[in-house]
Amino acid sequence: MPLHVITGAGATGVATAQLLAESGERVRIVSRSGRGPEHPLVERVAADVTDADRLTELLSGARTLYNCAAPAYDRWREEFPPLADALLTAAERAGTDYVMLGNIYGYGPFEGPLRPEQPMAPTTGKGRVRADMWHRALAAHEAGRVRVTEIRASDYLGPHAFSLYNLMVTPYLLAGEEALYPADLDVAHSWTYTGDVARTLVAAAAGPDEVWGRAWFVPSVSDASARELTARLAEVANTPAPRLERMGADALAQLAAQDSVMAEIEEMQYLDDRDCVLDASETEAVLGVKPAALDDVLREMADAARQSVGG
């Protein structure tokens, strides 16, 4: 029975561990907290994944390393490079296939549907971090030191997913309060379900040779505008008509002055001020991954949010 190692115990790491375990695969999920799903085939390990020596030990006998770990959003510039270096070093040493979970920051601003092969052209600090991580991994792949692929997602939907929408819209809508969201509310936007992330990661790891040495997009669960998405969430959750307004620049600046995570939002505003649509047709055709049903995802989000507040 093959062993798979997952770093990171957030929503995507847990979903990937559950998917693999439920299909009969052995999983070792590694995080600082040592958290993870309870399943007889899941081993939960508390470790610092920036320690390449320790991570190499944990990769012994593993077929695939899936990285779903990330530093705090306001610490990417300082903490992502050493994390990425440790993961890549450990995968090379252990001879383990390496599947990275990424996003679209490295592309910079774009027009029209984005395809995964579009060149990296980052214009932000976080975008440059992501592009550099990929270029280093791709260089190792092309040198024959490790097999690498990257699965790229847009903004997350799903229970417990860390995303601006889940932070600034979902709980307020369910409480019947006005939500302020720092985006153009009427542009098309691709949304990624965390369960679809897990299915794409696993499909890529088991895919044909053409999977490796390139990036793939997670099929979007919806390309709805924020306003359309929120209206649908209200219908599915059986709440009153949503009150959703755009958060202005001054209000966002005030939040940024008080919160270092919110301070990181401004440089990524270009993704929310114009159409941001991903073309994942290759993923669907080659890897056979189809997106989940939007209403099922929204229902899952609403149920989880209500349970978290005892509703």
Automatic annotation (TrEMBL):
Pfam family name, one: Epimerase
Keywords attached to this entry: NADP, Oxidoreductase
Residues that span the membrane, as ranges: none
Domain NAD-dependent epimerase/dehydratase: 5-210
Protein name: NAD-dependent epimerase/dehydratase family protein
